[in-house]
Design a protein that fits this description.
heterotetramer; A mainly alpha; B alpha+beta; C mainly alpha; D mainly alpha; D: mainly alpha; 4 helices; 0% strand
């Protein structure tokens, strides 16, 4: 979609009748794409749901071993980045080029912060041998609220597998998002966006917010299982 | 030529007739529908073929007609659904007093063990007119136990039991197929079911066996030291297993569960997953320590100490493990 | 009835506007992309067909004497993977759909032409990976990849094949996305929803499935690959996972995927039947809505593939009941097509013969679907040749008949040439006979109990005679498929030039020149008539509305 | 989209944006605190309700779903969620009833 705007002048592409048609098509297309993304993550959520019901205690033990404070901080970081995205679009709508560029840079900084914190989290898990695979170990970890009960390492491994795949795919989406925003920044720098024409910003923003929404679910589901003991 | 050109499979189980009846009903229904549509298409195509100067007559459609051919098929479908569901429920509900055969599937072989202890490979001997329940599991991938003459099929999964049953009605030898693709020699994972007259079957059964499966299980039970905790009185660290099988069990998290084959199996291989109320999760897992056949024997044993009908007879056996348990404990202390 | 009204002078069209490889590889014209797809899917069709022929040859005799079991297993796996993911799913949408969707709604192109080209490249990358995978070892799990065999046991190239399907899947998603946006946003003035050709409705329904179903199989493939590489346990019972979860996720896509194949074909048949009986389709709105309901209900029925898989009895009951919900709209369609013939003025041109063939084969395929939805019978016939016969009746008898019918119907528009009618009728007949000879015996084989995916049946010689019929039929069928390819190619050079509207058909695509110009219409058409206004066309009250250029 | 964004622009959407932002941060804090309370089986319900509220806020205000000029986008969202829930519900139905059979 973004590729459509290569012509310097935000001109109407030949096959659209009006600019509005072009803009509506682009945003509608993005929403449809997000629908496929929902189903993409949906398969993982379905697997998660089933195993969480089966192995609740083991999932709780595994979840408790993750640093929820880092996860919480990351949630806040993403929420802030979503705010900067809407502010960037607002800046484009009101012809504030400096603000637009500032907000885009801020968004990307938040995104990088998120990935950095994520990296710390992954490093912790790596040191604790909680990465599924040959070196995985989760022996003698008590199930929260059940003294004397130890989590089954195999079941904990399923949790960590889902944790790494879900957060990993999410992080991959963040990286792609950063790529899109780099391009948006470049285009904003060139002064391509005007109050009349800023479709790529809106499209990129939709994508960024979607990634945020996925995280809003991942945070309680992966980090906050049975924390109350 | 027609000796070797059958158009209908053997009908050799109590379910076969029921499935065939439904199948014939469906053939008639769909045959009628096909005939209706084909006749209409052929007739219209011939009757209304293009003729110069005769234009087509435009018809917009007809809601009553649409409703008719929505509602009538729906009605027919519901009849099929209910009938087929009844048949399916019969297939999936093994009769209570069925003879039990434990099946272990592996690439690419069927291993079968009668409750009485006879072991067979790729062949199963059963008496005619007796309910046989198959308790099946796989050592590796998914297989499927399929006997066309019995109209019976059930996937055999690794990691749990699936259950099927049949009641053979006609002596003879029938194909046993693996119906779920399981790797290179999938088409070689075949065998036969030999249905015998009761007298013949008894004769066959009397030939060599290492004693009933439950006795084998009892021996393993003792060897593994299970009786240390699962004592016949109530003072053990684990639940008393007498009379447990087939009964509801209250778990520590409040759930009620029926102690079926899968539950006993899970309790051996993953004891932490379902703790009986009032007990501590102290039992170690036996995953990897016992083979599928040994798990089957243990399940058969747990079952045998729970059969109420033979309660008195079994209680004698049940006292025995106590002696054995002392031994096992002793050996453990050493 | 086709008319070859030779245009006196060479006109500019989408084929002759630009020349050179680059003008094709970097084109964003939906018509050229459709042709790129046409060439590539034809290639994969013959690859898949080649495997089919080898399978049939092996099964001619009971023993596995032509090839060993491991090779045979790769044959049917690769036949399935190639045919499903690289032929049937893109077949009509990516070729005829790509070519016609914009034209039928009066648009200049799809909403996202570059994404359209991207999806062809994704398809090609996936296809090359699949070819590479097959040449360097292949896969032997069956196209269904059941775990734990695929994740922990087979040592063939699952990950590469999975990746190929993953990439091709995204091509399919992008096609669907493009269609939905185009149908919503790009319709010409006056082209209201109730004036849309049923072909468009069918593609709209198909797109819904592509958009919402494909990502689920994509993530399932990711999980299989991860499981295989790291032994996570998600699908492995030894590590606490559940192999049935794989089946749930897999069939959530792969059952609706059948409707990705058959719905567009239904759309084609609606166009053909209407045109060759010179009538508006009977019960237009019911046919249109039944497409949507097939797409929606199609998502509710997936676990009927799992009645003996170890699922709960109650779930089996629900899924069986829901399965009938998708049979109702299919039946409604068949009845409406039949009713359309009533009091028509029926022409027997090759496209119509294919449509008749579709009607017959789809009826049989659909009705045998009832057998499989019926729990008590499914237990006996699932995983046997009955299932093989059933889904070939749907996917080959249905989808492929529609595809060939559509190719003939729109060939004059695509190429600007007429195909040889006599040969085409002959081919339609050969395909119909060959198909039935191949697959009808398999219903009987299935009820007799012959399991699928058996390389060797030497202990069951009683199955041979039916297998011989089937193999004989497959050879006939093979000839039937080769014929159209030959005469289509022939007609590109030697065929009579086609007029703009050789069938005198309704529909915007016929109101522009054959072959069309790059942007389809000289100026944006304004639609003032209902779909399938054959009465107006034939009475001559209204000339076939010409968009003047 | 253009029509609504200009109309929103005239009302200056900034207050809304900052209010939503604050609500989202509050929600995050609430989720974390709620997880520390022992609510029995309601812990996950509370977590999911808060998460869904947050997701709705983002979708409605940041992604402008609320002001979208046509119902089409809402239809896309609703039908996607419908199929997602369908996948989970029907699969869970199998898992939920396996022990009974």
């Amino acid at each position: 979609m973004a590729a459509h705007t290569e012509s310097h002048n935000p001109a109407l592409l030949h096959h659209f009748a009006t600019e509005e048609q072009q803009r509506n098509s682009a945003s509608f297309g993005m929403w449809i794409f997000l629908a496929t993304e929902v189903m993409f993550f949906g398969g993982l959520f379905c697997a998660y749901l089933i195993y969480r019901r089966w192995y609740f205690g083991d999932f709780a033990a595994a979840s408790t071993s993750i640093n929820a404070k880092l996860g919480g901080a990351n949630t806040a970081v993403l929420i802030c980045s979503s705010l900067t995205v809407v502010l960037a679009i607002w800046a484009a709508q009101t012809s504030r080029r400096a603000l637009l560029i500032g907000m885009l840079i801020l968004t990307m900084l938040f995104g990088l912060t998120f990935l950095g914190i994520k990296g710390i989290e992954y490093a912790d898990k790596f040191h604790e041998h909680h990465v599924p695979g040959a070196s995985f170990s989760f022996d003698h970890e008590e199930i929260p609220g059940n003294p004397g009960h130890y989590a089954n390492p195999n079941h904990a491994q399923i949790f960590f597998a889902l944790y790494f795949i879900m957060t990993g795919l999410h992080a991959l989406h963040m990286v792609i998002g950063l790529g899109i925003f780099t391009w948006l920044l470049w285009a904003a720098w060139k002064g391509r966006f005007t109050p009349e024409y800023h479709t790529p910003l809106e499209i990129g923003g939709l994508y960024w917010h979607f990634v945020d929404i996925v995280w809003i679910y991942l945070f309680p589901l992966l980090y906050l299982i049975d924390r109350h003991t | 030529m027609f000796d070797n050109f059958p158009l209908w499979p053997d009908r050799a189980s109590s379910m076969a007739g029921k499935v065939d009846a439904l199948y014939i009903f469906l053939i008639i229904v769909s045959g009628m529908m096909t005939l209706l549509i084909f006749t209409a298409v052929v007739y219209f195509a011939a009757r209304y073929r293009y003729r110069k100067g005769v234009p087509a007559e435009q018809i917009e459609g007809s809601t009553p007609l649409e409703l008719t051919w929505t509602v009538i098929p729906m009605g027919v479908f519901m009849v099929i659904f209910i009938w087929s569901a009844v048949v399916y429920f019969k297939m999936r509900t093994p009769p209570r007093d069925a003879t039990e055969v434990y099946v272990v599937a592996k690439q690419w072989m069927w291993k079968l063990e009668h409750a009485e202890g006879q072991r067979e490979i790729n062949e199963l001997h059963v008496p005619v007119d007796r309910d046989v329940k198959l308790i099946m599991t796989s050592q590796d991938v998914i297989h499927s136990f399929y006997v066309p003459a019995f109209r019976m099929k059930q996937d055999v999964l690794p990691g749990r039991y699936t259950v099927a049953w049949f009641r053979a009605t006609k002596p003879g030898t029938y194909h046993l197929f693996c119906a779920e693709y399981c790797g290179t020699q999938h088409s070689g994972m075949i065998g036969s079911i030999v249905v015998m007259e009761p007298a013949q079957f008894e004769a066959w059964m009397s030939g060599g066996s290492g004693g009933p499966l439950s006795a084998t299980g009892e021996k393993i039970f003792a060897e593994l030291g299970c009786a240390t905790c699962h004592r016949a009185d109530t003072q053990g660290r684990g639940p008393n297993l007498q009379g447990v099988f087939g009964k509801p069990v209250q778990l520590e998290d409040g759930r009620m569960i029926t102690a079926d084959e899968n539950y006993v199996r899970e309790s051996i291989l993953d004891p932490g997953s379902k703790i009986v109320k009032g007990f501590k999760p102290v039992m170690p897992t036996f995953q990897g320590l016992v083979s599928e056949e040994q798990v089957n024997a243990l399940v058969a044993y747990v079952k045998s100490v729970s059969q109420s009908g033979a309660a008195t007879g079994k209680s004698a056996a049940a006292t025995e493990p106590e002696g054995v348990s002392g031994k096992a404990q002793g050996s453990k202390v050493q | 009835m086709a008319t070859g009204n030779i245009p006196p002078v060479e006109r500019e069209d989408y084929l002759n506007k630009h020349y050179g490889v680059g003008s094709w590889l970097f084109t964003t014209d939906h018509k050229r992309i459709a042709l790129l797809y046409l060439i590539s899917i034809t290639f994969f069709f013959f690859i898949g067909g080649f495997f089919a022929l080898l399978i049939r040859l092996e099964l001619l005799t009971p023993a596995s004497d032509l090839v060993q079991a491991d090779t045979y297993n790769k044959f049917f796996t690769q036949h399935g993977m190639v045919m499903v993911f690289f032929f049937l799913i893109p077949s009509i949408p990516a070729t005829l759909g790509n070519f016609l969707v914009p034209m039928m709604i009066g648009a200049k192109d799809l909403a996202f032409p570059k994404i359209n080209l991207l999806s062809w490249y994704l398809y090609i990358i996936g296809g090359i990976m699949m070819l590479h995978c097959m040449v360097t070892g292949g896969v032997d799990t069956g196209w269904t990849f059941y775990t734990p065999f695929s994740t922990a046991f087979t040592n063939t190239k699952i990950v590469e094949a999975g990746l190929a399907i993953f990439i091709a899947g995204f091509s399919s998603i992008l096609t669907g996305l493009n269609f939905v946006v185009t149908i919503h946003r790009m319709r010409a003035p006056g082209m209201t929803w109730t004036r849309l050709p049923l072909f468009i409705w069918a593609h709209y329904a198909t797109s819904i499935i592509q958009i919402l179903g494909t990502p689920v199989v994509a993530i399932t493939i990711v999980l299989v690959a991860a499981e295989r590489a790291l032994h996570l346990g998600i699908f492995d019972p030894k590590l606490g996972g559940d192999p049935l979860l794989f089946q749930h996720l897999f069939w959530f896509y792969s059952h609706p995927a059948v409707y990705i194949m058959i719905l567009p074909s239904m759309g084609v048949v609606s166009e053909i039947i209407s045109c060759f009986s010179r009538k508006r389709i009977f019960g237009y709105s019911f046919v249109a809505l039944s497409s949507i309901s097939i797409a929606v209900f199609g998502f509710l029925v997936w676990a009927h593939h799992m009645f003996v898989a170890g699922m709960s009895v109650y779930a089996a009951l629900i899924f069986s009941l829901l399965s009938y919900s998708v049979a109702v709209p299919s039946a409604v369609k068949v009845f409406n097509w039949t009713a359309t013939l009533y009091k028509g003025s029926i022409h027997y041109d090759a496209p119509m013969l294919y449509a008749f063939g579709f009607l017959g084969l789809f009826t049989i395929g659909g009705l045998t679907g009832l057998f499989l939805a019926a729990l008590g019978i499914d237990v006996h016939v699932t995983d046997t040749y009955f299932v093989v016969a059933h889904f070939h009746y749907i996917m080959v008898g249905g989808a492929l008949m529609g595809y060939l019918g559509g190719m003939h119907f729109w060939w004059p528009k695509i190429s600007g040439r007429l195909y040889p009618e006599g040969w085409a009728r002959l081919a339609a007949l050969i395909v119909f006979i060959g198909f039935n000879l191949t697959f009808f015996p398999q219903f009987i084989l299935g009820y007799l109990g012959m399991p699928r995916r058996y390389a060797d049946y030497s202990h069951m010689p009683e199955f041979q005679i039916l297998n011989v019929f089937s193999t004989a039929g497959a050879t006939v069928l093979g000839v039937g498929y080769l014929l159209p390819m030959v005469y289509f190619l022939w007609s590109m050079r030697y065929g009579k030039p086609a007029s703009d509207n050789p069938w005198n058909a309704a529909g915007l695509e016929w109101q522009t020149q054959s072959p069309p110009t790059t942007f389809n219409f000289p100026e944006e058409p304004v639609v003032t008539w209902e779909a399938y206004n054959y009465d107006e066309i034939d009475k001559g009250q209204k000339e076939v509305p010409q968009v003047v250029g | 989209m253009s029509t609504h964004s200009t109309s929103e622009h005239s009302k200056s959407p900034l207050t809304t944006y900052f209010a939503v932002w604050a609500a989202l941060l509050l929600g995050t804090w609430l989720t974390y605190q709620a997880s520390l309370l022992d609510l029995g089986r309601y812990n996950s319900a509370v977590a999911l309700i808060i998460a869904t509220t947050k997701a709705l806020l983002v979708a409605l205000f940041f992604m402008h779903l609320k002001g979208a000029s046509e119902k089409l986008l809402k239809l896309v969202v609703v039908s996607t969620l419908f199929f997602l829930i369908l996948l989970m519900a029907l699969a869970m139905f199998d898992y939920g009833t396996r022990w009974f059979s």
